[in-house]
Amino acid sequence: MYKYETHLHTSEGSSCASSSGAEMARAHKAAGYDGIFVTDHFFNSSTTVPKDLPWEQRIDLYCKGYENALEAGAKIGLDVFFGVEWTVNGADFLIYNKDKQWLKENERLLMESDERDLFDEVRETGGFIVHAHPFREAGYIPHISLYPHDVDAVEVINTRNGDPLFGGNTVYNERAKIYAAMFGLPETGGSDTHNAHQIVNGGILVPERILSPEDYIRQIRNGSVIPLEGDFKK
Known about the structure:
By secondary structure, this protein is of the alpha/beta class. 32% of the residues lie in helices and 23% in strands. Helix 1 links the parallel strand 1 and strand 2.
């Protein structure tokens, strides 16, 4: 089996993260991962990117964490892939199989459109949307928002949900599993890692090496993905 982290943040792109993309790559390699997806917070959440720059420059800065992780990964034998964590009404969504150029071409869609218009466009053009930690409760989340007909899969295990350092409560994961089952949505998992010194062994196991975001999507859809409980389970 191959081990991947599907949900992590870097200090280049996410203001809540404390480790660089290169540090994240090296830490996950040391922890036995075969690859990672860098999913920094986009501009509607905890971003480090200034608002007053031209759009293309903002996207270049946003992608730095991924690019630095990619460069480090190539040197140490770790596969690194790109993703986006996009937020609306306190709900977070992981978008896969979109790249920097797509971001540069879709400023209005990403910043001004109704979320369902964004979801439709992403999915209709080959992207894939995972609802991240859908039942997490926190002060920055005004209410729980569910979009069962607008997403492709559910993050049923988010190991940060179980982390006592962050007021974790594993019932959030239990509810996510019920939600996925109710609507027949595929399951996946992620650690939501923000610090290279806190690798909690979450993410997923898959029977085939992931060579691209499309490979990850295919393995989710065929039911091959095994979400990992991580080190903070009850």
